[in-house]
Design goal:
heterodimer; A: mainly alpha; 11 helices; 66% helix; 0% strand; B: alpha/beta; four-stranded mixed sheet; three-stranded mixed sheet; 7 strands; 22% helix
Amino acid sequence: MLLDDKSVYLMRLGDNALVLSQRLSEWCGKGPAFEEDMALTNIALDLIGQARMWLSYAGEVEGRGRDEDALAFRRDSHEFTNLLLVEQPNGDYAQTLVRQFFFDAWHQLVLEALMRSSDDRIADIASKAIKEVAYHLRRSSDLVVRLGDGSAESRRRVQAAVDELWMFTGEMFNADETEELLGAQGLACDPSTLKGAWLAIVSEVFAEATLEIPAGEWMQKGGKQGRHGENLGLLLAEMQFLQRAYPGATW
Amino acid sequence: MADLRERSDRVWGWLADVPDPEIPAISIVDLGIVREVNWHNEPAGAVCEVVITPTYSGCPATEVIGRSIEEALRERGVERVRLESRIAPAWTTDWLTSEGRRKLQEYGIAPPARRADGRQVIDISRLRRHAVEDAPAACPHCGSANTAPISRHGSTPCKALHRCLDCLEPFDYFKCH
């Protein structure tokens, strides 16, 4: 380590929250209902707050003088280490919802584990964030049930979103060397240990939502190692435009 | 020491007049954001340290609150103010003062209905439809317990929208957190 592994791990946590936050904020003013517009922007706000805490800490541990803004606005696509799931486009509302549900369930379990981290600051950030994420998961679970067990059209769309996004869920549980190392030290969470609990949440909610878990086992991977689809580049182009065009601009 | 204690008490009193920027009916002390006030004698003079714990991670009010504290203390002649933001233990609505709860109610916002203890670990069975969720005890306008949720999220991160089924008025609910 280990400092390198630790900053890499913290950056992953921050990147997940940041990229999903940016995606959700694309719905601002365009939500299908007023309540949903408020929900997505409020969730985006929670996530951007969490991203700031993780990225600030990542920058401090890294020790190269990069603060949260430098990490958010001055890294290129291949330096982002978020899960591929969170960079997927918003699509229709079912896709936005299913992406959120898959992530919320995983996020909840990761934070539960990180509350017990041997690193006090990681445990503190996780303990704060999980209160918000538990609320996110309640909302996304409830909506998956309502739309899954809703009209024929809403069910069709949610199931289609599940089928399309399923291949991005495997990566959440692939531990790499960094996670194995930090997991063994009690500092981070080895994500391979979370798969059973995640499937239990998804199965419980899908059973009530009359949705089916896809049979496909082939999974995409590479986000944590910086291998992203073109979607992330387009997202960053918008998110980073101002700091790229006017470096260091403040207001 | 007694002098420092007295000065801290006075600062707590001043901070009790600093309104929350988004819900000005209650103060930042009522909200439970101010955790400690400490005076430190340093070579360059006495420093007043105020420890605050932010509410929600992304709440935009947090930065405004920091500035409001500095202004409030400077206006009263405190020249050197140091703000410390502390995230642990995480802020909870259990820290709302009873005065704060009363003021929320009067302002038309239903206060949290119960304590937040240990809500962060998810019980899967409660993710099901019709699971018992956080709901206000009564409508802040007419006092009826006959209310229904409108939206889990409201105009600030800390609130949800509900409506009264008797007086038919919508109202904000300060979520249990």
